[in-house]
């Protein structure tokens, strides 16, 4: 496999792991502290229980999240980041400073870009920091 093929395979793998909707958000919430299922769902507006359940299963499968069941009545399920999950979440948080959300952009965000991002940001433009 050539170097070109290797980095492409790696980036495809990153997309497979981190690309599904809500994955970044779940990692961000769990980077603060372990949470129960309902606490995660309640902290993320718009996240449904079925999607959260699916994302947590995927993140566990990829080795980024672990699930602990405490012997209480009823049983308490706690989700936390693994060492690898913590490392990835830390690196993603480092990227936060590179992105700005501009409610009144100083440069034109094309209709295509605005439409593409309307789900996450209805009345603004997401840009690289210091680019507007």
Automatic annotation (TrEMBL):
CDD domains: HTH_ARSR
Coiled-coil portions: none
UniProt cross-references to InterPro entries, sorted A to Z: ArsR-like_HTH, HTH_HxlR, WH-like_DNA-bd_sf, WH_DNA-bd_sf
Record flagged with keyword Endoplasmic reticulum: no
Alphabetical list of SUPFAM superfamilies matching this protein: Winged helix' DNA-binding domain
Domain HTH hxlR-type intervals: 9-107
Keywords: DNA-binding, Transcription, Transcription regulation
MF annotations from Gene Ontology: DNA binding
Name of this chain's protein: Transcriptional regulator
Native species: Halonotius aquaticus
Organism ancestry: Archaea, Methanobacteriati, Methanobacteriota, Stenosarchaea group, Halobacteria
